[in-house]
Amino acid sequence: MNIDLGRLDPEAVRVELYADAGNRGQPERHIMTRRGTVDGSSSRYEYGVTVPAVRPVTDYTPRLVPYHPAAAVPLEAHGILWQR
To answer: What is the pLDDT of residue 48?
Structure first.
């Protein structure tokens, strides 16, 4: 997945795949790994993650979450951007 972070510091965000709890009781959050920049861009990054194939791909939504190692972010923080 390619994401253009604009002027955001890539160290200040975490990219996740998120799925609602459904019948499982807990939502799923899979942290994506930044694999590098996309050719010709200084703000566009490639991210990836491997997720067990137990749910349909349509259950998952990529999202950006503010990140700092000393901060805790609630699940529904208003600073989280959802892909539309």
So the answer is: 96
Residue 15 β-bridge partners: 64
Two tokens at 39?
């050719």
Residues 84, 63: Cα–Cα separation, whole Å: 10
| C-alpha distances out from residue 84 to 11, 51, 62, 72, 81, Å | 23, 21, 9, 25, 9
Total count of residues recorded for the chain: 84
pLDDT interval class at 51 (50, 70, 90): very high
What's the CA gap between 3 and 79, in Å, rounded? 17
Q: Classify burial at 51, counting beta carbons within 10 Å of its beta carbon; exposed 0-12, middle 13-18, buried 19 or more.
A: middle
